[in-house]
Each structure stands twice: as C-alpha cells, then as structure tokens.
Amino acid sequence: MTRTRRIREAKRAERLARDPSLDPRWFSQPTDDIAGAPRSVSPKRLLLTVSLIIVAGLSVGGYLLWQRVAAFNDAVSTSGSLSSSLLLALEGDERVNVAIFGYAGEPGHGGTYLADSINILSLDPATDTTTLIAIPRDLWVEGSPRMPANGKINEVFALGYAAGGINEAGIASAEVLSQVTGLQIDHWIALDFAGLRAAVDAVGGVTIDNPRAFAYTFNETSYHAGRWDAGEFAAGVIELDGAHALDYARTRYTSVSEESSDFARSARQQRVLSALRTKMGGGGAASLGPALAVMDALPGHFNTDVSAIDLLLLSGSLSPDARISLEQGVILEASSSDTGQYVLVVIGRSSGSDYAPLHAYLTAKLAEPIPTPIPTPTASAGT
Known about the structure:
six-stranded mixed sheet; three-stranded antiparallel sheet; alpha+beta; elongated
C-alpha cells in the first residue's frame, strides 16, 4: 500500500508540474474521495441504469396507451374496458355469432336508421374458422314482439333506435336475427356510413381486387334509365379512398345485374373490411399507428356491446373462410307484403312466422367442411 501511494503521489506531482492551473486539492487526497471528481462507471451499473430507463419508458407509454384504449372503449361500448366475453368463448366448443349492422346515420338521409347491411360473423372455435352469413335486408319478419306490425328485417334497427337509441337498436336487431336464423346472436356491432369512410381515410385508403367492372348510381330513376351518374369501378386491383370505399360497399344500382343485389353488396362490404384489416397490419409495433388512427376515427360512428379487448380478438376474423348467402330460389323467394312492398320470404314455410326451414338450411350449411385454401403468390390483399 505504501509503494502504491508513493507511485500515485509521484504521478500527481508530475501532472501538477505540467499544468500548474490544476486545482491542488486533486493531489491532497485520493480522487475517489473528492466531491466532483470524475468517477468511472462500471458496465454492470450502466446496463442497469439503461434497463431502468427503458422499463420506466415502457411503463409510462403502456399506461398512456391503455388510457387511450380505455377512453375509446367508454365512447363506443356498453362493456367495461377491462372485460372480455370472448376470450374464453373463443377457446370453447360452441360457435360465437356476432351481428354486424351498417346504417346511414346521416341527417336528411332517407332511412337514417334502417339497417343498410346485415351480416353475421360466425366463428367456430373448434375448427378456428369464420363464416360470414349475409342477411338480405328485404327478408320479411312476422311473429316478432319487436315488430308487432310485421316488416322487413332492416326496419328492426330503426324501431329499436326510436325506442331507446343505438344500443337498443343493436339489441333488438340481434334478438330478431336469432329468431329468424335459429342462431344465438351473442354480440353486435354497428357502424354508420361516416364511420366507414373515416376509418378507410385514417389508414390512407384501401386496396381492393374487384372481380368485375361496373358503373353505378344512387338514384333509382337513373338506374332504370341506364344513367350511371355516380361513377364506375374498374375490374382488377383498385385503390379506394374513404368516399369511394363507401360507394363501393353500399351501391346497389349498378350497370351489371350480378352487382345489383344485396348478396353482391355484402361481398363488396366484406372486401372493404378485409382490406381495412390488411391495411392495419398483422400486429406488432407497425400496426399500432394505423390501429390508433382507426380508433380515433370511430367514436360517434361506431357502437357495440363488446369491449375493446374483444374487438381486438375479432379483428383477425374480418377475412372469413367461407360465405353463406340466402339466395332466391334456394331458401328464399320473392313475394309482396300487404302494402305491396317487395319482400323475401322463406321457402317451405308453413306460415309467415315459420322460420324452421331457414334454421335447418343454416345448420346444414354451417356443418359443411370448409376447404383449406391453397395460397397463391398472386393473391391480392383485400379479396
């Protein structure tokens, strides 16, 4: 120790001789004991400090993110932000059926709260597959307490809204859907026109693979006159902003007969939703920005009875593995109501309120195995 001290003092004297401006206090005691003296930092301590900073940053960021998600949940859902009714259900053996309603929701629009589109997302946990069931809005409903005067199924949403707002609209429509399809509708989601438009714009537009070209109009008189004054969509891969994605999803007056039905509209709506899901990404940090952008665009236009956590679980099912359409001549046939309205009724019914044939049809279709898709390198996102 004495020899070490002599060597240290010699080095200090040498440094002071080279630079008299140095503070002599540096040479009166060991540098490790002088306040303000430079200290060496061990790699272990440096790593610990950096780790603590990262953990603190992630904790703060995670808290702020959760606050944002919770605020979104409170704005759009009747369920608590920390709840999940699907987490265990999607690990079970029974199907989970979620009704998705699209409606205008725009002041001055004819039929503001009529359901413009009705679909059932049927998830089968046993096979990890999803089937989309398109329900035509002209399907006639009789014998429902929700519709004592009878009517088309798209009217239920408007009647529910008039009785108790958007949540009652969703509850009433889900209840009637259960009656006519025989499926237990577990949950519902409702999105208005402005919400779809805003969500697509929030991610910078979507890419659709359109199977056939068609022109369109929203005016029935123009339709019968063959005037396509709203625009057209080319066949193949097309890019759509929010306004055109909405047009693509909802138009039913088209220049091609195959595109002028509720069934075709349902298929186009599914393409838009699938493309929107693709644009949001497959998860991870890269998906956070688009997901938050969509989340910010939806309040005021989107409502549901599932939590934000459950919406995340459902988001992966927006590209269904199979589709069921209730086609005319197969399970439905055209008819007229007492007031002369065009309606669709169930083939084989024993009375106006008999939906047993439709129940059996859907049970059989859902029991059919879903072919495993064969991936191709040319498959386009959003189809």
